[in-house]
Amino acid sequence: MKYRKSFITFGVILLSMAGSAIPAHAEDIVITVTDNGSSSSNEVHVNVQNNTTVEQNNTSNIENNVTNTVDTGNNTANGNSGGDTSITTGEAASTTTISNENINNNVAQAGSGGTTGGSVTINGNGSKTSNAITAQSNNSTSVTQNNTAVITNNSTTNANTGNNTANWNNGDVTIKTGSIKAETTIENKNVNTSIAKILGDCNSECVVTNEMILKIFGNGAGSINNLLFTNNDNKTYSSNNLATITNNVVHNLNTGGNTANGNNGDVLIVTGDVESTITITNQANSNYVEIECGCKQKPQDPEEPTTPPTKPTPNGGNGGVGGTSNGTSGDVLGAAIGEILPATGNLFLLWATVASLILFFSGWYLRFRSGCAPGFAK
What angle do CA 157, 161, 165 make, to 5 degrees? Predict the structure, then answer.
């Protein structure tokens, strides 16, 4: 019998340790105080702090210098004594493209913080108990983005088919200059772009988890119930953009300036066309902030808890502080809900704790009952 009692005691201790060693999920805060004796005092303190800080700094200094020189002119035909004189120049074409894109782009994505899902419950305690729940949640999300861009574009195009000379010729003189086509395109696009996305955390059922449920109910008459919940949710977004863009474009285009003097015959001067196209595009300092839950479905409200049967008031008297006039127990139900989340917990831990308590009291009962058992016959 001695060895049997030792084995039962060892089993009780082993199961108690195993039940207490079961880990709870980090994202769940489940605290339950229930079925305590009269005159008990219960206090629960919960403090949750979530801080998210994102800071990004960008600096760019870009300078582009482009010079194009095209010349088919400056031709000379002077002092020809016989025959006709003809000067024909070719066309001149110049194309310049400067592209500065995707300069200083910031993308920041941060969770909304919020309390982890969980619940705190005090219920079913004896009369004259003092019950208190104090919960505080501080959530802070800060995103800071700073962009600085200095861009300088210098483009110069020199094109000439003119300035031709045909003087003092005896025959006919003809000067024909070619056309000039010059194109310059400068694009400064997506300069200093900041995007901040602050998304909420959702579980697999698309229910927001940043929520706290606090409950005090079903306590005996004369109990004192206090519930204090403080929730601070701060989201700060700051974006500072500075863009200094300088575009200098110069087109020097010439098909004229032709000279035909002192000729004995006929003189014909035909100048070509000049076409100049300049395109400048500046897109800078764009900010975009998105704050959303991230869930596609709307969460449903949790069901109201069912109040257990009221415990009888001692001596059949009226309820004291927090009680009612007909002797039933006073109920104080406090629920502070962030967005919406049903209470969750570890069911295996609960059953393991109950089994440990049953085995513990069974061993305690066998230990003290063995003193009354009859001895073994010799």
Answer: 135
